[in-house]
C-alpha cells in the first residue's frame, strides 16, 4: 500500500517536476563540488610548488649545497629537531597564518570559492522550492474558486483531472461527487417542474367538469319539482363525475409511470389472452355503436410483458380507434413475431389523423381541432406510450386522412 502511495505521489505532475529539480540540483551540486575540489587540488599544487621554489631559492642564497637542498625536498622523514626548529621560527602548527603566506592565500581562495558555491546552490534551491509552492498555491486557489462555485450551484467550471497523481485522484472524486449533486439537483428541479405542470394540468382539466357540475346543481336546485329536468341533469352530473374520475385516475397512472414508482411484473403470457383481456370492456361499446373489433393472429404465440399494464395500453389504443371510427367501422388487431421483434398491430378504417396532428397525439390533453366532437380526455394515448416504453417497447403510428390509422407496438424478442 505504501508503495502505491509513493507511486501516486510520483505521478503528480508538480511533485514529479519538483523531484526532477531536486535530482538535477543534486547532480549539479556533486558535479560542481567535484570540479571545485579538482580546482583546489590544482591550486594547492601550484602554491606548494611556489613555496618549494621560494624555500630552495632562499637555501641556495644562504650557500647550502644543491645536493643537500635536493635531498631535503625529497625527504619524507620527520624528526623532533626539525619540528622544534619550525616551532622556534614561528612556523609550527599553531603559528599565525601571516607567517605562512602561501597557505594563507590558499585558505582565502578556498573559503571564498566554497562560500560562493554554497550561497549559489542555496539560492537555486530556494528558487526551486518557491516555484513549487507557488504553483501549488495557484492550484489550491483555482480549486477553492471552483468548489465555491459548486457550493453556489454553478457547475460550469471543472477541477483539473488531466494529470495523474494523488491530488488529481482527489479532484476526480470531487468531480464525480459534483456530477452526482448536479444530477440530483437537476432531477429535483425536473420533479418540481413535473409536479407543477401536473397540478396545473389537472386543475385546468377539472375546471370544465366542475363548472358543469355547478351549473347542473343550480338548475336542479331551481326546479326541484320538475322530475324530468332533475333526471336529465342528474344524468349529466353523473357523466361529468365519471369524466373527472377517469381524468384523475389516468393522471395518477401517468405520474406513477413517469416517476418510476411502478415496477412492471413481466412474465410470459399468450397474446390471444392478452388481447381478449384488453378489449373485454370495449366489445359491448363497439356492438352498441355498430362497430367491430376483429382479432386475427396465432393464438399460441407468447409475449413477455406485464399483462395488466400492457392490456390497459392496448385497450386505450382500441378505445381511441373506436372514438374516431364511424358506425360500421372496423378495428382490427393482429400480431407477428420476427427474429428480433414481436409486433402488435392495431388498425382502423376511421377518419385518420391529419399530418399536423400526428406528431402531437402522444402529448397529454392534446385534442385536435378536427376531433373536438369526439369522446376522450386526451390521456389515453400518452398513458399507452408511457406503459409501452416503460417495458422497453416502442409505439409508432401511421395514418392517412379518410382511410384510417395503424398503431404498431414493438417489443424486443427475449433471446
TrEMBL record:
E.C. number, please? 2.7.13.3
Catalyzed chemical reaction(s)? ATP + protein L-histidine = ADP + protein N-phospho-L-histidine
Write down the InterPro entries for this protein, in alphabetical order.
BphY/WalK/GraS-like, HATPase_C_sf, HATPase_dom, His_kinase_dom, HisK_dim/P_dom, HisK_dim/P_sf, Sig_transdc_His_kin-like_C
Q: Which spans of this chain does the record mark as coiled coil? A: none
Q: Where are the transmembrane segments?
A: 18-39, 108-134
Example of a GO MF term: phosphoprotein phosphatase activity
Q: Does the keyword Phosphoprotein apply?
A: yes
Query: Is Transmembrane helix a UniProt keyword of this protein?
Result: yes
Major location category of this protein: membrane
- Histidine kinase domain location is 201-415
Query: Under which name does UniProt file this protein?
Result: histidine kinase
